[in-house]
Design brief:
The chain has 14 helices and 9 strands. The protein is of the alpha/beta class. A 6-stranded parallel beta sheet has the order 3-2-1-4-5-6, sandwiched between helices. It is globular and about 65 Å long. It folds into 2 domains: 160 residues, Rossmann fold; 118 residues, N-(1-d-carboxylethyl)-l-norvaline Dehydrogenase, domain 2. Strand 1, helix 1 and strand 2 form a beta-alpha-beta unit. Bound molecules: NADP nicotinamide-adenine-dinucleotide phosphate. NADP nicotinamide-adenine-dinucleotide phosphate binds next to helix 4.
Length: 291
């Protein structure tokens, strides 16, 4: 079977390395990004430059969206010149952005009107895993649609988890980022306490690594936090957006999450203090300057 043509919409921190894996795996690829200059690395790998989401969708069997927030995905898919306008019967649209389950269901409903199929397939893993092709992909949608899309997803990730029907990939992703936000906030508070109590932070890393709750995260992200390196791999504005989406989902689902709410308030303060485009780990910088 020849590889299906893939249309990739959204070439940011994550979208660029993900689309590069598709190009390198031999998928015929058409790409589009709102800021056209970001298409250059993909065009160098032989991808075609799309004119807009509708035109990209019109020539693709599988369309992938990887943009920022729910309203941005809606613009790219449902807006004027959105992918939906060009989507062909029998094709598939995979949204890999982190959005709410309700947004995924809305997109799925629209895609179905074109006799096309939909998956929500957000990813776990940041710029490093996206570059290495080792993302964990969380899928919501029909098993048959997943099987048709599996070769494309497998080119970008090492683990594919079928979470359930449409929206369940998004719900699982939000629950995962809830843990990541807790990890970052907890580690930041612990590191501050260690430093201010006069301990060597290396002892903190040693005990975390020897503990039953050890995680490679402490050395990788914890290490850059200890050095106050907040260059964005996963922008603080996106984690803040995810915390708002978690709050919305918790309301809908009747889950009471007071600790997550407190962490969300901390991220809101960091955003208001101008840290949106730093890494989400800059939550440490926010705490450090708190009174
Ligand atoms: P990013 O670097 O900020 O890139 C965002 C992309 O979305 C850019 O291509 C941007 O286009 C495009 N975009 C935003 N609003 C748009 C609109 N209204 N119309 C058209 N294009 C629009 O974000 P990212 O880090 O790649 O993250 C993408 C998604 O993956 C987010 O939902 C994020 O939460 C999720 N995610 C990120 C990470 C991570 O570690 N970075 C990990 C897992 C999941 P321009 O270039 O024109 O601005």
């Amino acid at each position: 079977m020849p590889h299906p043509r893939v249309g990739f919409l959204g070439l940011g921190t994550m979208g660029t390395p993900m689309a590069m894996h598709l190009a390198k795996a031999g998928f015929p690829l058409t790409v589009w990004n709102r800021t056209a200059s970001k298409m250059t690395p993909l065009l160098r790998l032989g991808a075609k430059a799309g004119k807009g989401p509708a035109q990209v969708a019109a020539e693709a069997h599988i369309v992938i969206t990887m943009v920022s927030q729910p309203q941005d995905v809606e613009t790219v898919v449902l807006g004027p010149d959105g992918a939906l306008a060009g989507l062909r019967s029998g094709s598939m649209l995979i949204d890999m952005s982190t959005v709410s389950p309700s947004t995924s269901r809305k997109l799925a409903g629209a895609v179905t009107t074109k006799q096309a199929e939909f998956l929500d397939a957000p990813v776990v893993g940041s710029k490093g895993p996206a570059t290495e092709g080792t993302l964990v992909i969380l899928v919501g949608g029909l098993p048959t649609t997943l099987e048709r899309c599996r070769p494309v997803l497998a080119a970008m990730g090492k683990t594919i988890i079928h979470a359930g029907g449409v929206g369940m990939g998004s719900a699982l992703k939000l629950a995962t980022n809830l843990m990541l936000a807790h990890l970052a906030a907890g580690f930041a508070e612990g590191l501050l306490l260690v430093e201010r109590a006069g301990l060597d932070p290396q002892r903190y890393f040693e005990v975390l690594e020897a503990s039953t709750f050890r995680s490679p995260w402490y050395r990788s992200k914890g290490g850059t936090m200890a050095q106050r390196d907040f260059a964005a791999h996963f922008a603080l504005k996106h984690m803040h957006k995810d915390l708002r989406l978690i709050d919305e989902l918790a309301e809908e689902a009747g889950a009471v999450l007071p600790i997550t709410r407190a962490i969300e308030a901390l991220f809101a303060q960091a955003a208001a203090a101008g840290k949106n485009d730093l890494d989400y780990s800059a939550i440490l910088d926010q705490l450090e300057h708190a009174r």
